[in-house]
Amino acid sequence: MSPKHGSLSDSKIPKPIKYTSDEVPKNWDGKDWQTYKWAMLTVFEERNLEDIADGTLTAAMLQTASAEKKEEFRIKQVKIKRTVETSVPPEILQQISEKKTGSEMLTEMCDLFEGNRAKRLEPARVVAW
């Protein structure tokens, strides 16, 4: 009897992300960060939120803007925050929920996933006593 090679049941292929009717990822399990990040950046681009989501436009840049522009910015931050909050699993939401804005939440997620990944790839260090 020969051993099974390459069976799909043994593979580590992540489940495909499903989307809501608004095209927001809805079943992300926290494992395939690059696909989730790509999907979310696409959602923000489609909704004309990418400059706020990626931090290119900040509240500090709007200090001399009209009250209308400041309110538009605030509403966009709320949309980003809601989109993120409804697309992440509870254990990730707990780690980012203290952030006040959507772009702060996204920055925290990048730190969590990209920072942790970089640390995991570092070679183990031997400590001499």
Blueprint (SSEs and pairs):
Layout: H1 33-46, H2 50-53, H3 67-85, H4 90-96, H5 102-121
What would a concise description of this structure say?
This protein has a domain at 49-87. The protein is built from 5 helices and no strands.
Give an overview in words.
There is one protein chain. This protein has helices spanning 33-46, 50-53, 67-85, 90-96, 102-121. It is mainly α and 129 residues long. The chain has a domain at 49-87. The termini are far apart. Residues 5-10 and 117-129 have low confidence and may be disordered. Residues 1-24 are annotated as: Disordered.
Q: Give the ordered list of helices and strands.
A: HHHHH
Radius of gyration: 19 Å
Shape by Cα distribution: elongated
Helix/strand-derived category reads mainly alpha
Distance between the termini: 52 Å
Q: Give the integer mean of the pLDDT values.
A: 79
Q: What share of the residues does DSSP label as strand, in percent?
A: under 5%
Tally of separate helices: 5
| Biggest sheet character | none
DSSP, total strands: 0
List keywords for this structure.
129 residues, mainly alpha, 50% helix, disordered C terminus
